[in-house]
Design brief:
The protein is of the alpha/beta class. Helix content is 17%, strand content 30%. The strands form 5 sheets. An 8-stranded parallel beta barrel has the order 1-2-3-4-5-6-9-10, surrounded by 4 helices. Strands 11, 12, 13, 14, 15, 16 and 17 form a 7-stranded antiparallel beta sheet that branches. Strands 18, 20, 21, 22, 23 and 25 form a 6-stranded antiparallel beta sheet that branches. Helix 3 runs parallel beside helix 4 and helix 5 packs parallel to helix 6.
Length: 610
Protein backbone atom coordinates (compact mmCIF):
# COMPACT_ATOMS: atom_id res chain seq x y z
CA UNK A 1 0.00 0.00 0.00
CA UNK A 2 1.31 3.44 -0.94
CA UNK A 3 2.56 5.67 1.87
CA UNK A 4 2.06 8.74 -0.31
CA UNK A 5 -1.38 10.31 -0.32
CA UNK A 6 -3.16 10.23 -3.68
CA UNK A 7 -4.07 13.55 -5.31
CA UNK A 8 -7.30 15.04 -4.12
CA UNK A 9 -10.11 15.42 -6.68
CA UNK A 10 -9.88 18.70 -8.56
CA UNK A 11 -13.02 20.56 -9.59
CA UNK A 12 -16.10 18.65 -10.77
CA UNK A 13 -15.63 14.92 -11.37
CA UNK A 14 -17.69 12.38 -13.34
CA UNK A 15 -20.36 10.21 -11.79
CA UNK A 16 -20.33 6.46 -12.27
CA UNK A 17 -23.08 6.69 -14.91
CA UNK A 18 -21.08 9.31 -16.81
CA UNK A 19 -17.95 7.14 -16.74
CA UNK A 20 -19.90 4.09 -17.91
CA UNK A 21 -21.33 6.13 -20.78
CA UNK A 22 -17.94 7.60 -21.69
CA UNK A 23 -16.37 4.15 -21.98
CA UNK A 24 -18.87 3.27 -24.72
CA UNK A 25 -17.14 5.62 -27.13
CA UNK A 26 -19.44 5.14 -30.11
CA UNK A 27 -23.10 4.30 -30.57
CA UNK A 28 -25.75 4.90 -33.19
CA UNK A 29 -28.76 7.11 -33.70
CA UNK A 30 -31.69 5.62 -35.62
CA UNK A 31 -33.95 8.29 -37.12
CA UNK A 32 -37.06 6.54 -38.40
CA UNK A 33 -40.70 7.65 -38.51
CA UNK A 34 -43.31 8.97 -40.95
CA UNK A 35 -40.65 11.40 -42.25
CA UNK A 36 -38.95 8.41 -43.85
CA UNK A 37 -42.00 8.06 -46.07
CA UNK A 38 -42.77 11.75 -46.69
CA UNK A 39 -39.19 12.84 -47.44
CA UNK A 40 -39.24 15.52 -44.74
CA UNK A 41 -36.88 16.20 -41.86
CA UNK A 42 -39.51 17.64 -39.51
CA UNK A 43 -43.05 16.36 -39.88
CA UNK A 44 -45.94 18.68 -39.03
CA UNK A 45 -48.14 16.16 -37.19
CA UNK A 46 -50.79 15.92 -39.91
CA UNK A 47 -49.27 12.80 -41.50
CA UNK A 48 -51.60 9.82 -41.67
CA UNK A 49 -50.37 6.69 -39.87
CA UNK A 50 -51.35 4.88 -43.08
CA UNK A 51 -48.11 6.00 -44.74
CA UNK A 52 -45.95 4.17 -42.21
CA UNK A 53 -45.49 0.75 -43.79
CA UNK A 54 -41.88 -0.47 -44.04
CA UNK A 55 -41.79 -3.47 -46.34
CA UNK A 56 -38.85 -5.36 -44.78
CA UNK A 57 -38.22 -3.88 -41.34
CA UNK A 58 -35.53 -5.92 -39.62
CA UNK A 59 -34.04 -4.65 -36.36
CA UNK A 60 -31.69 -7.64 -36.38
CA UNK A 61 -30.17 -6.20 -39.57
CA UNK A 62 -29.57 -2.89 -37.79
CA UNK A 63 -28.11 -4.39 -34.64
CA UNK A 64 -25.98 -7.09 -36.25
CA UNK A 65 -24.36 -4.40 -38.43
CA UNK A 66 -23.79 -2.10 -35.45
CA UNK A 67 -22.30 -4.87 -33.32
CA UNK A 68 -20.07 -6.01 -36.19
CA UNK A 69 -18.70 -2.51 -36.78
CA UNK A 70 -17.86 -1.59 -33.18
CA UNK A 71 -20.89 0.31 -31.93
CA UNK A 72 -21.89 -0.17 -28.29
CA UNK A 73 -25.46 1.06 -28.29
CA UNK A 74 -28.41 2.30 -30.34
CA UNK A 75 -30.81 5.22 -29.75
CA UNK A 76 -34.21 5.16 -31.49
CA UNK A 77 -36.43 8.15 -32.28
CA UNK A 78 -39.37 6.60 -30.46
CA UNK A 79 -41.31 9.84 -31.05
CA UNK A 80 -40.09 12.71 -33.22
CA UNK A 81 -41.62 16.19 -33.50
CA UNK A 82 -44.49 14.88 -35.66
CA UNK A 83 -45.82 13.03 -32.60
CA UNK A 84 -46.00 9.64 -34.32
CA UNK A 85 -45.06 6.90 -31.84
CA UNK A 86 -43.03 3.88 -32.92
CA UNK A 87 -44.63 1.86 -30.14
CA UNK A 88 -48.35 1.21 -29.53
CA UNK A 89 -48.86 3.89 -26.89
CA UNK A 90 -52.03 3.71 -24.84
CA UNK A 91 -52.03 7.53 -24.67
CA UNK A 92 -52.52 8.26 -28.38
CA UNK A 93 -53.84 6.66 -31.54
CA UNK A 94 -51.13 8.42 -33.58
CA UNK A 95 -48.82 5.41 -33.55
CA UNK A 96 -47.82 2.20 -35.27
CA UNK A 97 -51.03 0.67 -33.94
CA UNK A 98 -52.95 2.77 -36.48
CA UNK A 99 -50.65 1.89 -39.37
CA UNK A 100 -50.92 -0.99 -41.86
CA UNK A 101 -47.46 -2.24 -40.83
CA UNK A 102 -47.72 -5.65 -39.17
CA UNK A 103 -51.51 -5.18 -39.49
CA UNK A 104 -51.38 -2.65 -36.66
CA UNK A 105 -49.75 -5.16 -34.32
CA UNK A 106 -46.16 -3.94 -34.75
CA UNK A 107 -43.84 -2.33 -32.23
CA UNK A 108 -40.58 -0.88 -33.57
CA UNK A 109 -39.23 0.02 -30.13
CA UNK A 110 -40.04 -3.43 -28.79
CA UNK A 111 -38.40 -5.19 -31.75
CA UNK A 112 -35.31 -3.01 -31.41
CA UNK A 113 -35.04 -3.64 -27.66
CA UNK A 114 -35.11 -7.38 -28.34
CA UNK A 115 -32.51 -7.15 -31.12
CA UNK A 116 -30.23 -4.89 -29.06
CA UNK A 117 -30.11 -7.48 -26.27
CA UNK A 118 -29.48 -10.23 -28.83
CA UNK A 119 -26.43 -8.45 -30.25
CA UNK A 120 -25.03 -7.06 -27.00
CA UNK A 121 -26.00 -3.42 -27.57
CA UNK A 122 -27.39 -0.98 -25.05
CA UNK A 123 -30.68 0.74 -25.83
CA UNK A 124 -31.32 4.49 -25.75
CA UNK A 125 -34.55 6.45 -26.21
CA UNK A 126 -35.21 9.73 -28.06
CA UNK A 127 -38.59 11.11 -27.04
CA UNK A 128 -39.41 14.54 -28.42
CA UNK A 129 -41.26 16.83 -26.00
CA UNK A 130 -42.32 18.94 -28.99
CA UNK A 131 -45.41 17.24 -30.39
CA UNK A 132 -46.99 18.79 -33.46
CA UNK A 133 -49.89 16.33 -33.41
CA UNK A 134 -51.11 16.12 -29.80
CA UNK A 135 -54.12 18.44 -29.35
CA UNK A 136 -53.33 19.31 -25.72
CA UNK A 137 -49.80 20.54 -26.53
CA UNK A 138 -49.35 23.98 -25.03
CA UNK A 139 -51.14 23.24 -21.74
CA UNK A 140 -50.52 21.68 -18.34
CA UNK A 141 -52.36 18.61 -19.60
CA UNK A 142 -49.62 18.02 -22.17
CA UNK A 143 -46.94 17.75 -19.49
CA UNK A 144 -48.98 14.97 -17.91
CA UNK A 145 -49.41 13.36 -21.32
CA UNK A 146 -45.68 13.46 -21.99
CA UNK A 147 -44.81 12.12 -18.55
CA UNK A 148 -47.20 9.24 -19.12
CA UNK A 149 -45.51 8.39 -22.40
CA UNK A 150 -42.08 8.69 -20.80
CA UNK A 151 -43.08 6.29 -18.02
CA UNK A 152 -44.60 3.94 -20.58
CA UNK A 153 -41.46 3.71 -22.72
CA UNK A 154 -39.01 3.42 -19.83
CA UNK A 155 -41.13 0.78 -18.09
CA UNK A 156 -41.88 -1.35 -21.14
CA UNK A 157 -38.51 -1.30 -22.89
CA UNK A 158 -35.69 -1.80 -20.46
CA UNK A 159 -35.73 0.49 -17.46
CA UNK A 160 -32.43 -0.41 -15.78
CA UNK A 161 -30.95 -1.43 -19.14
CA UNK A 162 -31.53 1.91 -20.90
CA UNK A 163 -28.24 3.79 -21.22
CA UNK A 164 -29.40 7.20 -22.50
CA UNK A 165 -32.51 9.35 -22.78
CA UNK A 166 -32.10 11.99 -25.49
CA UNK A 167 -33.83 15.40 -25.42
CA UNK A 168 -33.33 18.15 -27.95
CA UNK A 169 -34.42 21.70 -27.35
CA UNK A 170 -37.11 21.93 -30.02
CA UNK A 171 -40.09 23.93 -28.80
CA UNK A 172 -42.56 25.66 -31.09
CA UNK A 173 -46.27 25.81 -31.77
CA UNK A 174 -48.42 22.73 -31.55
CA UNK A 175 -51.58 22.03 -33.59
CA UNK A 176 -53.50 24.68 -31.61
CA UNK A 177 -50.83 27.35 -32.14
CA UNK A 178 -49.67 27.34 -28.50
CA UNK A 179 -46.14 26.74 -27.20
CA UNK A 180 -45.40 24.42 -24.30
CA UNK A 181 -43.56 25.15 -21.07
CA UNK A 182 -41.84 21.84 -20.43
CA UNK A 183 -41.70 20.33 -16.92
CA UNK A 184 -38.03 19.38 -17.17
CA UNK A 185 -37.59 18.66 -13.46
CA UNK A 186 -40.48 16.20 -13.54
CA UNK A 187 -39.13 14.51 -16.67
CA UNK A 188 -35.71 14.09 -15.09
CA UNK A 189 -37.19 12.69 -11.87
CA UNK A 190 -39.08 10.02 -13.83
CA UNK A 191 -35.92 8.98 -15.67
CA UNK A 192 -33.93 8.78 -12.45
CA UNK A 193 -36.64 6.59 -10.95
CA UNK A 194 -37.25 4.22 -13.86
CA UNK A 195 -33.88 4.26 -15.68
CA UNK A 196 -31.35 5.05 -12.94
CA UNK A 197 -28.32 4.10 -15.03
CA UNK A 198 -29.28 6.24 -18.03
CA UNK A 199 -27.46 9.45 -18.83
CA UNK A 200 -29.72 12.33 -19.86
CA UNK A 201 -28.73 14.37 -22.91
CA UNK A 202 -29.69 17.98 -23.65
CA UNK A 203 -28.05 21.39 -24.02
CA UNK A 204 -27.97 21.47 -20.22
CA UNK A 205 -27.53 17.80 -19.41
CA UNK A 206 -27.90 17.02 -16.58
CA UNK A 207 -25.42 14.26 -17.52
CA UNK A 208 -24.08 14.96 -21.01
CA UNK A 209 -24.25 17.98 -23.26
CA UNK A 210 -24.79 18.69 -26.94
CA UNK A 211 -21.52 19.55 -28.68
CA UNK A 212 -23.05 22.67 -30.26
CA UNK A 213 -23.15 21.51 -33.90
CA UNK A 214 -24.37 18.65 -36.05
CA UNK A 215 -21.39 18.29 -38.37
CA UNK A 216 -19.40 15.99 -36.12
CA UNK A 217 -16.79 18.06 -34.32
CA UNK A 218 -15.96 18.70 -30.70
CA UNK A 219 -13.68 21.66 -30.08
CA UNK A 220 -9.92 21.32 -30.52
CA UNK A 221 -9.96 22.59 -26.95
CA UNK A 222 -12.65 20.59 -25.20
CA UNK A 223 -13.22 20.84 -21.47
CA UNK A 224 -15.63 18.32 -19.97
CA UNK A 225 -16.95 21.10 -17.73
CA UNK A 226 -19.52 23.87 -18.12
CA UNK A 227 -21.88 25.77 -15.80
CA UNK A 228 -25.27 24.09 -16.04
CA UNK A 229 -27.03 27.04 -14.47
CA UNK A 230 -26.29 29.10 -17.59
CA UNK A 231 -28.04 26.66 -19.94
CA UNK A 232 -31.44 25.11 -20.62
CA UNK A 233 -32.64 22.73 -23.32
CA UNK A 234 -32.89 24.78 -26.49
CA UNK A 235 -31.13 27.76 -24.90
CA UNK A 236 -27.35 27.54 -24.94
CA UNK A 237 -24.19 29.21 -26.19
CA UNK A 238 -22.97 26.84 -28.90
CA UNK A 239 -19.37 28.05 -28.60
CA UNK A 240 -19.30 27.08 -24.92
CA UNK A 241 -21.02 23.78 -25.66
CA UNK A 242 -18.30 23.03 -28.20
CA UNK A 243 -15.28 23.95 -26.09
CA UNK A 244 -16.55 23.71 -22.51
CA UNK A 245 -15.20 25.95 -19.78
CA UNK A 246 -11.80 25.74 -18.12
CA UNK A 247 -13.40 26.81 -14.82
CA UNK A 248 -16.77 25.11 -15.28
CA UNK A 249 -18.54 24.04 -12.10
CA UNK A 250 -20.31 20.96 -13.53
CA UNK A 251 -18.94 17.81 -15.17
CA UNK A 252 -20.91 17.69 -18.42
CA UNK A 253 -18.93 16.03 -21.24
CA UNK A 254 -20.13 16.38 -24.84
CA UNK A 255 -21.84 13.98 -27.19
CA UNK A 256 -21.21 14.48 -30.92
CA UNK A 257 -24.39 13.73 -32.87
CA UNK A 258 -23.99 13.64 -36.65
CA UNK A 259 -25.62 11.80 -39.53
CA UNK A 260 -23.77 9.56 -41.98
CA UNK A 261 -25.53 11.41 -44.81
CA UNK A 262 -26.84 15.01 -45.15
CA UNK A 263 -30.29 14.37 -43.66
CA UNK A 264 -31.25 12.83 -40.35
CA UNK A 265 -33.92 10.73 -42.05
CA UNK A 266 -33.31 8.56 -45.07
CA UNK A 267 -33.91 10.23 -48.43
CA UNK A 268 -33.16 8.18 -51.58
CA UNK A 269 -31.64 11.15 -53.38
CA UNK A 270 -28.91 11.20 -50.70
CA UNK A 271 -27.77 7.63 -51.39
CA UNK A 272 -24.80 9.07 -53.29
CA UNK A 273 -24.04 11.58 -50.53
CA UNK A 274 -23.03 9.15 -47.78
CA UNK A 275 -19.98 10.58 -46.02
CA UNK A 276 -16.67 9.35 -47.38
CA UNK A 277 -14.38 7.15 -45.33
CA UNK A 278 -12.02 10.09 -45.03
CA UNK A 279 -14.83 12.25 -43.63
CA UNK A 280 -15.95 9.58 -41.16
CA UNK A 281 -12.39 9.24 -39.88
CA UNK A 282 -12.28 13.01 -39.35
CA UNK A 283 -15.54 12.78 -37.40
CA UNK A 284 -14.24 9.91 -35.26
CA UNK A 285 -10.98 11.65 -34.36
CA UNK A 286 -12.83 14.92 -33.69
CA UNK A 287 -15.33 13.24 -31.35
CA UNK A 288 -13.99 10.11 -29.64
CA UNK A 289 -10.53 11.63 -30.07
CA UNK A 290 -11.58 14.81 -28.25
CA UNK A 291 -13.14 13.21 -25.17
CA UNK A 292 -16.66 13.05 -26.53
CA UNK A 293 -18.83 10.09 -27.45
CA UNK A 294 -19.87 9.70 -31.09
CA UNK A 295 -23.58 9.25 -31.80
CA UNK A 296 -23.59 8.45 -35.53
CA UNK A 297 -26.99 8.49 -37.22
CA UNK A 298 -27.87 5.60 -39.55
CA UNK A 299 -31.38 6.23 -40.92
CA UNK A 300 -33.27 3.16 -42.18
CA UNK A 301 -34.97 3.50 -45.56
CA UNK A 302 -38.59 2.80 -46.49
CA UNK A 303 -37.83 -0.92 -46.45
CA UNK A 304 -36.91 -0.58 -42.79
CA UNK A 305 -33.28 -1.47 -43.50
CA UNK A 306 -30.01 0.42 -43.15
CA UNK A 307 -28.98 1.14 -46.71
CA UNK A 308 -26.22 -0.92 -48.30
CA UNK A 309 -24.05 2.13 -48.96
CA UNK A 310 -24.20 3.18 -45.32
CA UNK A 311 -23.28 -0.37 -44.27
CA UNK A 312 -20.29 -0.48 -46.61
CA UNK A 313 -18.96 2.77 -45.17
CA UNK A 314 -19.28 1.49 -41.59
CA UNK A 315 -17.31 -1.63 -42.45
CA UNK A 316 -14.61 0.49 -44.06
CA UNK A 317 -14.37 2.64 -40.93
CA UNK A 318 -14.12 -0.42 -38.70
CA UNK A 319 -11.35 -1.88 -40.86
CA UNK A 320 -9.21 1.27 -40.62
CA UNK A 321 -9.72 1.68 -36.87
CA UNK A 322 -8.94 -2.00 -36.23
CA UNK A 323 -5.74 -1.79 -38.24
CA UNK A 324 -4.70 1.42 -36.52
CA UNK A 325 -5.27 0.37 -32.91
CA UNK A 326 -4.43 -3.33 -33.16
CA UNK A 327 -0.88 -2.63 -31.95
CA UNK A 328 0.17 -0.23 -29.20
CA UNK A 329 3.91 0.34 -29.58
CA UNK A 330 4.11 1.86 -26.10
CA UNK A 331 2.39 -0.86 -24.09
CA UNK A 332 4.58 -2.27 -21.30
CA UNK A 333 7.49 -0.11 -22.45
CA UNK A 334 9.68 1.55 -19.85
CA UNK A 335 8.97 5.16 -18.92
CA UNK A 336 10.73 7.85 -16.91
CA UNK A 337 9.53 11.25 -15.74
CA UNK A 338 10.89 14.58 -14.56
CA UNK A 339 8.73 14.20 -11.43
CA UNK A 340 6.63 11.46 -9.89
CA UNK A 341 4.53 11.88 -6.82
CA UNK A 342 6.65 11.35 -3.70
CA UNK A 343 8.89 9.07 -5.81
CA UNK A 344 6.32 6.41 -4.96
CA UNK A 345 5.86 3.45 -7.32
CA UNK A 346 2.11 3.83 -6.97
CA UNK A 347 2.34 7.00 -9.11
CA UNK A 348 5.22 5.96 -11.34
CA UNK A 349 5.39 6.93 -15.04
CA UNK A 350 5.39 3.19 -15.78
CA UNK A 351 1.64 3.38 -15.09
CA UNK A 352 1.31 5.21 -18.41
CA UNK A 353 2.02 2.06 -20.37
CA UNK A 354 0.76 -0.75 -18.10
CA UNK A 355 -2.66 -0.99 -19.75
CA UNK A 356 -4.41 -0.67 -16.40
CA UNK A 357 -7.12 2.02 -16.15
CA UNK A 358 -6.91 1.98 -12.34
CA UNK A 359 -3.31 3.25 -12.25
CA UNK A 360 -1.87 6.58 -13.32
CA UNK A 361 1.25 8.71 -13.32
CA UNK A 362 0.94 11.73 -11.01
CA UNK A 363 3.24 14.53 -9.96
CA UNK A 364 3.65 16.31 -6.65
CA UNK A 365 0.93 18.78 -5.77
CA UNK A 366 3.04 21.83 -6.64
CA UNK A 367 4.22 20.51 -10.03
CA UNK A 368 1.98 21.63 -12.88
CA UNK A 369 4.49 21.18 -15.73
CA UNK A 370 6.32 17.91 -16.21
CA UNK A 371 7.45 15.46 -18.85
CA UNK A 372 7.51 11.70 -19.26
CA UNK A 373 9.62 9.76 -21.77
CA UNK A 374 8.49 6.39 -23.15
CA UNK A 375 11.23 4.19 -24.60
CA UNK A 376 9.77 2.07 -27.40
CA UNK A 377 12.70 -0.37 -27.39
CA UNK A 378 13.18 -0.27 -31.16
CA UNK A 379 12.37 1.95 -34.11
CA UNK A 380 8.66 2.16 -34.81
CA UNK A 381 6.59 4.01 -37.40
CA UNK A 382 4.12 6.21 -35.48
CA UNK A 383 1.41 8.71 -36.48
CA UNK A 384 -1.32 8.35 -33.82
CA UNK A 385 -0.92 9.20 -30.12
CA UNK A 386 -3.62 8.37 -27.56
CA UNK A 387 -3.78 9.87 -24.05
CA UNK A 388 -6.14 9.58 -21.10
CA UNK A 389 -6.37 11.51 -17.85
CA UNK A 390 -7.56 9.74 -14.72
CA UNK A 391 -10.80 11.70 -14.87
CA UNK A 392 -12.13 10.21 -11.64
CA UNK A 393 -9.98 12.97 -10.12
CA UNK A 394 -11.14 15.67 -12.53
CA UNK A 395 -9.77 17.32 -15.67
CA UNK A 396 -6.41 18.99 -15.16
CA UNK A 397 -4.18 19.30 -18.24
CA UNK A 398 -4.55 22.54 -20.22
CA UNK A 399 -1.69 22.35 -22.76
CA UNK A 400 0.88 19.76 -23.78
CA UNK A 401 3.36 18.79 -26.48
CA UNK A 402 4.27 15.43 -28.00
CA UNK A 403 7.92 15.06 -29.02
CA UNK A 404 9.87 12.32 -30.80
CA UNK A 405 13.56 11.42 -30.73
CA UNK A 406 15.29 11.60 -34.09
CA UNK A 407 18.21 9.53 -35.42
CA UNK A 408 20.71 11.96 -33.87
CA UNK A 409 19.10 11.62 -30.45
CA UNK A 410 17.55 15.09 -30.57
CA UNK A 411 14.01 15.79 -29.46
CA UNK A 412 11.68 17.21 -32.12
CA UNK A 413 8.15 18.48 -31.62
CA UNK A 414 5.57 16.19 -33.19
CA UNK A 415 2.39 17.97 -32.11
CA UNK A 416 0.98 20.49 -29.63
CA UNK A 417 -2.56 20.41 -28.27
CA UNK A 418 -4.90 21.50 -25.50
CA UNK A 419 -7.00 19.42 -23.08
CA UNK A 420 -6.96 15.65 -22.62
CA UNK A 421 -9.76 14.58 -20.25
CA UNK A 422 -11.15 11.08 -20.79
CA UNK A 423 -9.55 10.66 -24.20
CA UNK A 424 -7.32 12.64 -26.55
CA UNK A 425 -6.31 10.95 -29.78
CA UNK A 426 -4.01 12.87 -32.09
CA UNK A 427 -3.16 12.19 -35.72
CA UNK A 428 0.36 13.39 -36.32
CA UNK A 429 2.92 13.40 -39.12
CA UNK A 430 4.44 9.94 -39.57
CA UNK A 431 7.81 9.52 -37.86
CA UNK A 432 10.15 6.61 -37.26
CA UNK A 433 11.44 6.75 -33.70
CA UNK A 434 12.46 4.71 -30.69
CA UNK A 435 11.20 7.15 -28.04
CA UNK A 436 8.33 9.56 -27.44
CA UNK A 437 7.87 12.31 -24.88
CA UNK A 438 4.74 13.70 -23.26
CA UNK A 439 5.55 17.25 -22.22
CA UNK A 440 2.83 18.83 -20.09
CA UNK A 441 3.32 22.57 -20.35
CA UNK A 442 0.40 23.77 -18.24
CA UNK A 443 -2.07 22.14 -15.86
CA UNK A 444 -4.66 23.42 -13.39
CA UNK A 445 -3.51 20.94 -10.75
CA UNK A 446 -0.93 18.18 -10.58
CA UNK A 447 -1.37 16.01 -13.71
CA UNK A 448 -2.82 12.52 -13.34
CA UNK A 449 -2.26 10.65 -16.62
CA UNK A 450 -3.71 7.18 -16.98
CA UNK A 451 -2.57 6.16 -20.46
CA UNK A 452 -0.03 6.95 -23.16
CA UNK A 453 -0.16 4.82 -26.31
CA UNK A 454 1.34 5.04 -29.78
CA UNK A 455 -0.07 3.62 -33.01
CA UNK A 456 0.29 3.72 -36.77
CA UNK A 457 -2.60 4.33 -39.17
CA UNK A 458 -1.77 2.95 -42.63
CA UNK A 459 -2.51 5.24 -45.58
CA UNK A 460 -6.20 5.41 -46.41
CA UNK A 461 -6.88 5.08 -50.12
CA UNK A 462 -9.54 7.58 -51.13
CA UNK A 463 -11.20 7.67 -54.53
CA UNK A 464 -10.13 10.72 -56.59
CA UNK A 465 -12.50 13.66 -56.35
CA UNK A 466 -14.19 14.84 -59.53
CA UNK A 467 -14.64 18.57 -59.73
CA UNK A 468 -17.45 19.69 -62.03
CA UNK A 469 -17.02 23.12 -63.58
CA UNK A 470 -20.55 24.42 -63.82
CA UNK A 471 -19.33 27.55 -65.54
CA UNK A 472 -18.07 25.40 -68.41
CA UNK A 473 -21.43 23.67 -68.82
CA UNK A 474 -24.07 26.32 -68.21
CA UNK A 475 -23.64 30.02 -68.82
CA UNK A 476 -25.65 31.23 -65.84
CA UNK A 477 -26.30 34.89 -65.23
CA UNK A 478 -27.96 36.57 -62.28
CA UNK A 479 -30.35 39.03 -63.89
CA UNK A 480 -31.91 40.32 -60.66
CA UNK A 481 -30.66 40.15 -57.10
CA UNK A 482 -31.79 41.82 -53.90
CA UNK A 483 -28.18 42.27 -52.79
CA UNK A 484 -25.90 44.66 -50.97
CA UNK A 485 -23.13 43.50 -53.31
CA UNK A 486 -22.52 45.07 -56.69
CA UNK A 487 -23.98 43.28 -59.73
CA UNK A 488 -20.69 41.63 -60.74
CA UNK A 489 -20.09 40.24 -57.25
CA UNK A 490 -23.64 38.92 -57.00
CA UNK A 491 -23.34 37.20 -60.36
CA UNK A 492 -20.06 35.55 -59.43
CA UNK A 493 -20.98 34.38 -55.98
CA UNK A 494 -24.62 33.34 -55.97
CA UNK A 495 -24.06 30.38 -58.27
CA UNK A 496 -20.41 29.52 -57.74
CA UNK A 497 -18.56 26.87 -55.78
CA UNK A 498 -16.35 29.51 -54.19
CA UNK A 499 -16.28 30.21 -50.50
CA UNK A 500 -17.94 33.58 -51.12
CA UNK A 501 -21.61 34.17 -50.37
CA UNK A 502 -24.52 35.97 -51.87
CA UNK A 503 -25.87 38.26 -49.17
CA UNK A 504 -29.17 40.01 -49.57
CA UNK A 505 -29.83 43.59 -48.64
CA UNK A 506 -30.36 44.22 -44.92
CA UNK A 507 -34.06 44.85 -45.40
CA UNK A 508 -37.12 42.89 -44.27
CA UNK A 509 -37.85 39.55 -45.91
CA UNK A 510 -38.60 38.33 -48.58
CA UNK A 511 -35.41 38.39 -50.67
CA UNK A 512 -34.87 36.88 -54.09
CA UNK A 513 -32.49 35.89 -56.89
CA UNK A 514 -33.47 35.55 -60.57
CA UNK A 515 -31.15 33.48 -62.76
CA UNK A 516 -30.89 33.05 -66.53
CA UNK A 517 -29.44 29.60 -67.27
CA UNK A 518 -28.68 30.58 -70.88
CA UNK A 519 -30.81 27.83 -72.40
CA UNK A 520 -33.84 25.78 -71.43
CA UNK A 521 -33.35 22.79 -69.18
CA UNK A 522 -35.70 20.15 -67.77
CA UNK A 523 -35.46 21.09 -64.10
CA UNK A 524 -35.97 18.20 -61.67
CA UNK A 525 -35.15 20.14 -58.52
CA UNK A 526 -32.71 22.49 -56.84
CA UNK A 527 -30.14 22.49 -54.04
CA UNK A 528 -29.81 25.37 -51.60
CA UNK A 529 -26.56 25.41 -49.64
CA UNK A 530 -26.70 27.65 -46.55
CA UNK A 531 -23.72 29.44 -45.01
CA UNK A 532 -21.75 27.35 -42.54
CA UNK A 533 -19.62 30.01 -40.86
CA UNK A 534 -20.83 31.60 -37.63
CA UNK A 535 -20.73 35.14 -39.05
CA UNK A 536 -23.29 34.45 -41.77
CA UNK A 537 -25.31 31.56 -40.30
CA UNK A 538 -27.93 34.04 -39.10
CA UNK A 539 -28.78 34.55 -42.78
CA UNK A 540 -29.84 30.94 -43.33
CA UNK A 541 -33.22 30.66 -45.03
CA UNK A 542 -35.99 28.64 -43.38
CA UNK A 543 -38.87 28.99 -45.86
CA UNK A 544 -38.59 29.27 -49.64
CA UNK A 545 -40.49 29.51 -52.90
CA UNK A 546 -39.04 28.42 -56.24
CA UNK A 547 -40.41 29.80 -59.52
CA UNK A 548 -39.53 29.10 -63.15
CA UNK A 549 -40.28 30.80 -66.45
CA UNK A 550 -39.24 31.13 -70.07
CA UNK A 551 -38.91 34.89 -70.30
CA UNK A 552 -36.94 37.21 -68.06
CA UNK A 553 -39.98 39.26 -67.08
CA UNK A 554 -42.29 36.28 -66.44
CA UNK A 555 -40.54 33.98 -63.93
CA UNK A 556 -43.80 33.36 -62.10
CA UNK A 557 -44.60 29.63 -62.32
CA UNK A 558 -44.47 28.36 -58.72
CA UNK A 559 -43.09 24.81 -58.75
CA UNK A 560 -41.93 24.33 -55.15
CA UNK A 561 -42.40 25.90 -51.74
CA UNK A 562 -41.74 24.75 -48.22
CA UNK A 563 -39.23 24.86 -45.39
CA UNK A 564 -35.65 23.79 -44.74
CA UNK A 565 -36.13 22.06 -41.40
CA UNK A 566 -33.39 22.08 -38.75
CA UNK A 567 -31.12 24.14 -41.00
CA UNK A 568 -29.44 26.10 -38.19
CA UNK A 569 -28.15 22.98 -36.44
CA UNK A 570 -27.57 21.07 -39.67
CA UNK A 571 -26.30 23.63 -42.24
CA UNK A 572 -25.89 21.18 -45.11
CA UNK A 573 -27.07 21.32 -48.74
CA UNK A 574 -30.86 21.14 -48.89
CA UNK A 575 -32.08 19.11 -51.88
CA UNK A 576 -35.61 19.83 -53.09
CA UNK A 577 -37.09 17.66 -55.84
CA UNK A 578 -40.01 18.90 -57.91
CA UNK A 579 -43.18 16.83 -57.99
CA UNK A 580 -43.14 17.15 -61.78
CA UNK A 581 -40.02 18.11 -63.79
CA UNK A 582 -40.46 21.33 -65.75
CA UNK A 583 -38.76 22.79 -68.84
CA UNK A 584 -37.55 26.34 -68.24
CA UNK A 585 -34.71 28.77 -68.92
CA UNK A 586 -35.12 31.05 -65.89
CA UNK A 587 -35.63 30.38 -62.19
CA UNK A 588 -36.38 32.62 -59.24
CA UNK A 589 -35.39 31.64 -55.70
CA UNK A 590 -37.34 33.53 -53.04
CA UNK A 591 -36.20 33.52 -49.41
CA UNK A 592 -39.55 33.87 -47.64
CA UNK A 593 -38.52 33.61 -43.98
CA UNK A 594 -35.30 33.60 -41.99
CA UNK A 595 -34.23 30.64 -39.87
CA UNK A 596 -33.43 33.16 -37.16
CA UNK A 597 -34.56 36.67 -36.32
CA UNK A 598 -32.58 38.58 -38.91
CA UNK A 599 -33.32 40.75 -41.93
CA UNK A 600 -30.76 39.50 -44.44
CA UNK A 601 -30.53 36.21 -46.34
CA UNK A 602 -27.39 34.27 -47.33
CA UNK A 603 -26.83 31.74 -50.08
CA UNK A 604 -23.52 29.88 -50.22
CA UNK A 605 -24.52 28.23 -53.48
CA UNK A 606 -27.65 27.48 -55.49
CA UNK A 607 -27.74 24.53 -57.89
CA UNK A 608 -30.37 23.24 -60.27
CA UNK A 609 -30.81 19.52 -60.93
CA UNK A 610 -31.41 19.07 -64.65
Amino acid sequence: MSKVQAPKPFGPCPTSRQLTWQRMGMYSFIHFTVNTFTGREWGDGTESPEIFNPSELDCDQWCSLLSETGFKGVIITAKHHDGFCLWPSQYTTHSVASSPWRNGQGDVVGELAKSARKYGLKLGIYLSPWDRHEPCYGSDAYNEHFKNQLREVLTNYGGDEIFEVWFDGACAEGPNGRRQIYAWDDYIAIIRELAPHAVIFSDAGPDIRWVGNEHGEAGATCWSKINRRDFAPGHADTAILNAGLINGMDWLPPEVDVSIRPGWFNHPHEDDQVHSLERLLDIWYHSVGRSACLNLNLPPDTRGLIHEKDAIRLRELKLVLDRTFAVDFAVRCSATASNSRGNDAAFSPSNLTDGNSATYWATDDDVFAAEAIVELGELQKVNVISLKEHTELGQRVATFDIEWRDAEGQWQRLDSATTISFSRILRTPTVVTDALKLKITDALACPCIEQFSAHYQPPVLVAPKIIHDRQGKIDWKVIAADSELDERHAKENAISEKDDLWISADTPYPHELVVDMGTSWTIEGFVYTPPEDREHSFGAVSHYRFFVGNSADQVNQLVAEGSFDNIINNPLPQTIRLDVPVLARYFRFVAVESAQSTRFACVKSLDVMA
